Amino acid sequence: MTCRENEPELAWLEWHDPHLLALHNRLQRRRETSQLECAGHAFGVQWASAVQPLETGIEIALQVGENRLRLNLPVQVWQALSLPDCVMIDPQSLACSMLLEWALLPLIERVEQLAELPVSVIEPAGFITQPLTLNTTLAVQIGQAQPVGLSLHMSQASAELVADLLDRHATPASAEPPLLHLPLAVERGEAWLNISELRSLNPGDVVMLEQWPEGQLRLVLDAHLQARAELDGNTLKLLEQPIAMNSMKEHPMTATAEGQGLDSTLDELPLKLVCQVGSVEMSLAQLRELGAGSLVQLTPQLHDGVDLMVNGRRIGQGQLVKIGDGLGVRLLSFATV
Q1: Residue 133 is inside which H or E element, if any?
Q2: Shortest CA distance to 140 belongs to which of 73, 95, 84?
């Protein structure tokens, strides 16, 4: 039994209208910071900000054409922008709306020019006919002060207008998460072995690797991208742009006898033993820039030799050796499979 078992199913979750999801996501798309000016104060506005808006604030009711919006501004923003004092006394009054519209006139004129629609500050009571079901968070930074979050509430019609204006006039921010780094492996060789063969291996054994061009390595992103490369110390030089790996490539399989038991069949499952000589982490932006001739600095190994990997897991260490004209690996340590 769970602590929520007596509650209506998923009742504690935030609800979204499925018909408005696409519009909601357009409003949440990150944009480059807009630089604006009001009452002689320069400030930046970040759309769809992660800065949480304060629960308390002063409401500004706006009308753009026939569409209505509500902006909830923290008190410190009012004070920093030197907005009319009457807002602090009676923000619901018509006189306050008129004074506020006069104070915000430079911003209003800019929005009117972009939207090609009249913009005015109205009394909050005018929202009764238009439910404000969509919202986004903005962050305002005045000078060197910390950004302050504020919320913008919209009806469906006003949200469509805002989203259209943003798509036309606000440059999208980088869609790639700045802190997302992907691990890439540098492989020197591989061999297909079944589970039974892996279990039989011991330190000191030598495994023949598949034939690769001499001196070449492979830079691999999981099982998705790969590029041929050459290694000079801890620096990797790419010979080509990373390309998609062929996940449907056939691998060696031994024939199984008819009626063979499950245990025997599982023992014959093929697994790829990979010799990994290094690794590196890169951002998506760095990955996009890779091409023939690109140089990649690898993370230094804490030991000599290669790491032995199966299904992305390190199961031992080895040392590369020559076997005739080919390449092999001698096991220095090996975990029980």
Answers
A1: none
A2: 73
Distances, alpha carbon 213 to alpha carbons 246, 290, 327, in Å: 19, 21, 10
Q: Read off the DSSP letter of residue 110.
A: H
Query: Where exactly are the structural domains of the chain?
Result: 21-169, 181-245+265-334
What is the DSSP pairing of strand 58-64 with strand 67-73? antiparallel
SS3 320: strand
pTM: 0.56
Q: Looking only at Cα atoms, what is the longest distance across the chain?
A: 93
| Nearest one of 267, 244, 243 to 257, comparing CA atoms | 267
Q: Which residues, at least 6 apart from 204, have a Cβ–Cβ distance to it below 8 Å?
A: 330, 331
- The domain 181-245+265-334: what is its CATH number? 2.30.330.10
Contacts of 148 (CB under 8 A, 6+ apart): 51, 54, 74, 76, 77, 139, 140, 141
pLDDT tens, N- to C-terminus, the chain (337 residues):
444 445 555 566 677 788 888 999 999 888 888 888 877 778 888 888 888 877 677 788 889 999 989 988 887 777 777 776 665 556 567 777 787 788 788 888 888 998 899 998 887 766 656 688 898 988 888 888 888 888 999 999 999 999 999 999 988 876 666 667 889 999 999 999 998 899 899 999 999 999 888 888 999 998 789 999 998 878 899 999 999 987 545 455 455 445 566 666 777 888 999 999 988 999 888 888 899 989 998 877 666 789 999 988 999 999 999 998 889 999 999 886 6
Report the C-alpha dihedral over residues 283, 289, 295, 296, rounded to 10 degrees: 10
DSSP letter at 69 equals E
